Structures are given as structure tokens and as C-alpha cells.
Amino acid sequence: MLAQRRCVKSFAVQRVLRSRGRFSDTFGVHSNLHSSAVLSASSSPVPLSNELRERVKHAPLAPTYDPTVVEQGWQQYWQQALSPNTQLKSVDTESLNKVFSMILPPPNVTGALHIGHALTITIQDAIARWHRMRGFDVRWLPGLDHAGIATQSVVERKLHKEQGLSRYDLGREAFVDQVWQWNEQYGGRIMNQIDHLGAIVKKDQPYFTLDKQRSEAVINAFVTLYEKGLVYRKRRMVNWCPTLQTAISDIEVDSEQLEKATKKMLPGRDKPVEFGVMHRFKYQIADSDEFLEVDTTRPETIFGDVAVAVHPEDSRYQQHHGKCVVHPFSKEKLPIVTDETLVNMELGTGVVKVTPAHDPKDFECGQRHDLPEVEVIDKYGKLCGNIDQHFIGLDRFDARQLVVEALQEMNLYVEKLDHPTALSICSRSGDVIEPLLMPQWYVDCSEMAKRAADNVRNGVMTIEPKSHAHTWFFFLDNIQDWCVSRQLWWGHRIPAYRLKPGTTGATDATDKWYVATSLMEARQKAEAELGCKLQDNDLEQDVDVLDTWFSSGLLPLSAFGWPNASKDKAVAQDLSSSYPLDVMETGSDILFFWVARMAMLCEEFSGRVPFEKVLLHPMVRDKAGRKMSKSLGNVIDPLHVINGISLDQLLSDLQGGNVGPRELKKAEKELKKEFPKGIPTCGADALRFTLASYLQQGRQINMDVQRVVSYRHFCNKVWNAVRYALPLLETDNGSPESVDLSLLRGDMTLADRWIMSRLAAVVSEVNDGIAANQLATSVAAIQRFFVQELCDVYIEFSKPVLYGNRLEEGLDCEEKRQARKRSAQATLHRCLDYSMRLLHPFTPFVTEELWQRIREVDPLNASKEEDIETSILCAEYPEQSHMSSWVDADAEQRMALVIDVIHGIRSLRHTVKVLAPNATPTSDSDRPTVRIVCSNATVHSELKDAQRDLETQCRVNVDVVIAGDGSSTLPSAHVLTHSVSNYCRVMLVVPDDAETTQRVANEISRLEKRASKSASAAEALIRRQQGPHYAIKVPEAVQAQDAQRLTQLQTEIQATEKSLDALRELQRLY
Question: Which residue would you say has higher pLDDT here, 1039 or 424?
């Protein structure tokens, strides 16, 4: 056993030392390590406000934890602490003045933060605080997105509701003024909500994607891309949203797969529209009685048909090559063309109607055959053009049914068939996309996309979790040119100008655009090209605005002042130290919307990748796994969780939203079931800790508010532990000088040395977890340490020493007792101090509140450093190098034995209570005697040393004996035995009464059922793990959860079997 311990100790030391160099693997920064075991608090003072000073320095610690009080005042204090003057100065000169830069993904200015934003802030703030406490100048910039489509839609609805006006009634300039007023009125709400969550963003350096500085960057970027030949204007097929009245990019289009006839409600319609069907009708061949049958999902586009196409090798139709068909409505002759690209002989009838103005593939076919483009659907989704007057102005879907009826009357309609259909839906409005031909501005992304994809393939940029890399490659390897113009009024107006019609020199030049940074520059370019003088009012600017993602895609550069580096030394210095970003953390759902655009655009302009590390977190859904949506009424407001809310108010908010009648009833029922008394006040700390703990799941988080309530209890546990400890840490006589804890090692008990070794282990686990972007691992480790090891074990073991009521042989000297007490005080203080620091990135408010008090009662600090007011944010974060000397495998092994024996004794006492409930001792003098039989001299010696602890913790008398020495006989034959190990058994007499025999049988039956249930669950889990695709398809985090659950089940089975063995042995004795 001793040899085994030496091996364990060696492994433990190597484990801590090996993990020292891991941080730079994730964040590309230097670890802030030094050899001292004592962490300095700060390099400069950060004075408390009067309110905070009164609360944490003078007022007694409140008897109960109240987050509404604890979370007041600290946000402003942390902004003071973020000053570079208070930056922690490290002995490691490489880390001195090191910058860690990051930007907060900008929430839309349109509304309030939702739980997804709360998750982003939780993760980024944990990373930011961790770096700050490790000596880095953290530059975490917050901002807001002007959110073109979303913001304009909100203001338009408000304008119509309050004044009955449309934006066209106001005019562009007046409407944009209205949007700015709305933005100024509501934009500040977001920053207030960010404050509620405790984010240490640089509030003195915020950005807004439509502010002057960012607007200059956008104009500069667009003009530069145009001059490089990467921006162009062309009439092409676009994704048009009739509801939003704008074109959108390909990635803003959702593809909804339908397998059969399906009715779907669309915005602005009272009745559902049927999709997932194919309509078959006939075209008559000109000058013939023959017909060609054609399939289409969109009969309403028949008015735009200019040809029908067949495959050149289709023998069924070769005799019709070169002929024409007669249009059912206009009676015009349409050519039969052959096109092997458009037509698949195996699908449908093998004949395809060609509508170049309203289908992307038909458009390409029309280009190949020089066919006309007849537009028959306008931007409002209504029929237009030179068509049958009965159909003019009809909604496209109303016209669909009328066209079918008209074809039926002409005996040209054949049938309707179920047909798998991919429906193109606008991701913002939910309307069906209408392909329309119109001139738009495009960005040629081919080379930029290839570079961004290669960067990930070559390891220049990494994406975590790695499973998302395939999405990155799929998007970039198949990228289309990016349509960046939007038919909106709110946004960055495209910096392109053209001559107004009628202006001198405008002949044949009205479609000639001059892309420039200003009207003056555009006029100069036009004058140079046309050879004549122009006035400013001879030119007009494009009325369209740029896609919001274009401005967002520049943020790693523009947030720090680009492109003004050459004009401003401060901007140049800021960019030099802050770009590239150290990490880009965001939601996996905007990997290609935003992250890919940043990767493409920023490298194009800077020559460097904007970040080397992309960290992606999962989507947050409700606890049933449904996507959170206002239309479903299942959105969780973080402030409701932080501050609490009544059920009545929840229902009122729900009814005031835009939930449909059917979903409203269901949502109300769910709210009443889940929150019968509303949502209790949980606080930001509990919410943050919960969100961090969820990050061990797979690709989504199923958010359960009750879990936040449970973590509020954890915060309360932390509060109570510190409240218990503070009086015990106070010393009567201060030390003449400060003393290092390591000098007290000789006075430490086994429990002291054990908890310090466990502290070393948790410091390693927490740091490794944050460094590897496994925050759930970190929060689980610190929670386990604080609750199960510090509170449940160490504090209980230290009570006799701290209270001075522990009498042991060899400690009759008062000086020795005081030394032992001082060691316990110092150990407990170190554990609480480090625990607050380790927890701080996740639960900043409660840890700051408690740390301010803990630092004032350091039993080893005589320097009065606690008189200097500072923040835990300026304290040094515990790291492996601080704790490596405390790794003590021998203490952990010895303590593990003691804890196992305690568990064994408690298990036996519980079983005896079940078997003989009337035999409970009435006083300490009636304590039962537990016999511990050891077959190993080392184990016997260790347990003899721990005898007082065993008796105190279990409230029994303990008799530790060597097996076979004749003293292991107990006064009764009816004895329960618990095997702690091969070398140690715990024995306890069972008092007899008339019903003991039956109770033994009942307990055996109960435990057999439990063992069977646990075994079945373990077998099912093993079968799942052995599935053919388990290792490939199941996320790594879920596999880790399964492995943890299996270990837990196997432990439960072993414990139950031990209890059964003891009971069966007892049963044989009766």
C-alpha cells in the first residue's frame, strides 16, 4: 500500500506540473505564474463607494443571502477597477502590459436581451475576468447593431399604430429621423441589461454599427472593394421578400422541406396556402392536335412562360424539336427548346416550362437560349404586366387557384400530385421568397471565401467545437456572390452615385454609377470621365442601403478605429495592440452569417485573420427542446430570472405579446404548470452559474429555470459558509509579522493537509477547464470542492480545533493547541480566499461581496494590506504554480480511508436505525461502539491516529483492533459488517427486538429492487454506448455525461451490494 501511495503521489505531482502550459493553446496568451504561494491582492488601490464601504466594511454580514442587495453597486466599482492603473503586475515580465481583446456580439438595438445574449455574456465575462485576474489589460468592447430590417420594421409598426402613417407618408429623411429618435430612446436599455449581468465591458469605448466612426469604415470598405473589382452591380435573380420589401442574401433564406401536400399560414393572409403539390397541365403543340404535359409547383407564373424545354436526348420528344407550343392564355407561340442542364428526363414528364423572370434555373436557361424575360409578379407579390386583365393585381397565391380553375375550364388541367418541395422562406419575416430580376450590388466572395476556408484547414484559424468546421467548409466552399444591397431606408446608404435623368451628359449614362466616399468625390470622378463640369445636385445617390452583416463583418477592425490608423496615433496604437482579437466567442447559429463574413472582410483589408480562435456555444431552447420564440410564448427574459416576477405578470406579458390564440392557450397552461408562484428572485450569479453548467451539453441547451433556483441555493451555501467562518478566523493577538502558510505545515492536521491538496487539484481543474473552453468542467469542479470537500468534510473536521474543544494526547501544551488552531484558521482562510477567486469569473457579485470581508480576517497577514481598498478583480487568480507544493498524495490516500470508514459507520448506523428503530441512544453516554477490524498494520495505525475524528464525526465510540488478536469479538452475535476494503471491516451490533428478523427481510427486498433497477439502467447505458454510430454521432460532451452517469450507477450498485452482503450475513445469524 505504501508503494502504491508513492506512485499516486508521483502521478498527482506530474498532473499538476503537466497542466501548466495549457493556457496558451486556447487563448494564445502567457500564463501569469510565479513561485510564491501567496497571491498579491492588487498593484493599486480601488476605493470603495461610501455605500459599498458601509456595507462590506462596517455592517455585519446579513444572516441570509439576498441577491437584490448583493448585486447593487459593484458594476460601477468594477469599471474603476478596469483602469490600466489597477492592472495586476506580475513577476512574469512577458505578461506585463499584455492585452486581451474581444468584442461582444452586438445585440439588435430593437429589443431586450434574451437568454441567448445572457449565455454569450456569461461565457465572455468569465473569460474576460479570468484574463484580468491573470494580469492582462482586458479590452472587451460592447456595442449595438443597428439591425436594418428589424429596426425599420419595429418603427414602421409603431408609426402605423400610433399615427396611422407609413414611411412613405413621412418621406425618407423624416422617417430616418423617427428611427434615430426611437434608437436614442430605447438603445440605452441594452447596456443597462448588460450591467445587470455583471459584464466588465469597456463602457467608455462602445460601438454602434451606424455611428459616425463605423459608417466611415463601411464606406471606406465598400469603395475599396469596388476599386479592387470585388464589388459590382448587375441585374440578376434575387431573393425578394414581399413582406419586408427588400432583397435578402442566400443565407437569410431558410429551406423548409415538405414531403406532401401541406397547408401553411403566411404573413398578411387570412387563409393557409397549399404547398408540397405538383400541378400537371397541357401545352398544345402549335398546328397540331398533340399536347405536351408539363409539371409545375407554381401555376401562377404561367403568364411569364416564354418557352418549354425538353432534354435533347429524350426520345419521347425528339420529333418536336424546333416546334412551338401555344400559350393557353395569350395564345402566343412559345418555342420548344432543348436544354440538358435544366431538364432531367427522369423527373415528371420530362417537359419543363421556362419562366426566366421568376425562377433562377429558368433565368440561366433563358440566358443560354436568348429568351425574353417577362415579369408578371411585382415586388408586392401581385400579378402585373401584359397579361389577362382578370388576373392583374391579384395576390400570387390567390391567382394560383384561379389559374388552375381556368386551365380546367380549357380542359388543359390534368391532375394534382403530392410532390416533395423545398420551400424558400425568408428567415426574418416567414414569407415565401419571390425570385425577381432586378439590379443589385454584389460582393465577389470567391477568393476571400477560399482563403477563409484554407485558414481553418491549415490550422491558421481554429473552430471549437471542431464539429462545426464542416458547416464552415460547406458554406465557404459553395459560396455565391453576396447580394449586399437592401431596399430599406434605415442603414448605411450605398456610396454610389449616378447622373440624374435629364442632366447634361446623362445620355446613355443613367445606369453608370460612380462609387465614391462622398458626393464631391463622385462628382470629380464623373467630371473626369464625361469631360464636363457638374453640380452636386446633378448626381443622385443610390437609395438602397447595405446589408447589416456588411457593417458587422468589419467590427474586429472598425470597433478599434479602423481605417483611421494613419490619421490618429491613438487609433494606430489601439489597433496594433488589440487586433487580431484573442478570441471570437459567439453562438453557433451565426457562424456563417457573421463569423465567416468577418473572416473574409477583415483579412481582405488587414492582411491578417481577425482572430485565430473561434469559440461557439450552443443554441438555448426551452426545457422541452423547442426553439424560443415570441410567437410560441416560451421566451425567457433574463431579468425575470434575476429579479423575479409573479405569475400574474408573466401571464400579462404573454397576453400582451404576439402569440397566436392557439399557442397562447398552450403557453398559459405551461406557465401555470411550471411557475405556479411565478419565478423567484434568483440573481445574476445563479443565472450565470446555471448557464455555464449547461455548456457540457451537445448542440443545444434545454433551459430549465428550476435549475437556476437550485444554483441560487448554492450561492446561499457559499454565503452561509463564509458567514460561519468569519468569526472563527478572527485572532486575539495579531502576528508580529506576516507568515507564509507553508511554514505552518508542521502544525497541520491530516485534514488540513488533505484540503490543501484538494485545493491544488481544483485550481488545476478550474484553470484547465477555462483554458479549454470547458466552463461546465470548471464550475462543476469548484462546486464539488466547495460543497463536498470544503463544507461537508473539512469544515466539519476543523470545528473541534477551531472551537478549542479537541483534546488529544501530546497536545496538552497550550502553545501547541494554539499552533494547531492557527494552522486550521490559516488553512480555512486560504480555502475560502481561493474559492472566491476561483468562483469569481462565474459568480462575480457574491464573491466580490464576500471576498471584501474574507481579506480582512487573514490570520497570517500582519501588513494590514486589507486596509488598502481594492477589488477581487484586481487580485491574482490561483494557478497551478501557486499550489504545486501542496499536492499531497499521502494525505489524500489517508484521508480517503478515513472518509470511507466514516461512510461505512454512517451506513451501518442508518441500517441499524431501520432494523431497530426503538434502540436509538438517548445521550452521548449511550453511544454505540463501532469495532474497526484491520488486517494491515499501516491501516490500523492510520485509523488509530484518526480515532478521535471518527468518534466526533460519527458520534460513536470507536475500537480499532488488529484482526486475529482476540479482541475483535463483539458482545452479541447479531452484528452488521461493512467491508471498507480488503484490509478493513467496520462492525456494529444490532439490538434485538421481536420484529428485527422481519425488518431485515424487508430491507433486503428493498435493496434488491434498487440494485435491479440500477443494473438495468447501467445495462441500457452500456448498450447505448456500444451502438454502431455512438462514437461518431453523439457529441463528446454527451458521451462524457453518459460515462459519468455509468460510473455513478456502478458505484451505487457496488454500495447496494455491500449493504446486501451485510444484511444477508446478519440474516443467517438469526
Answer: 424
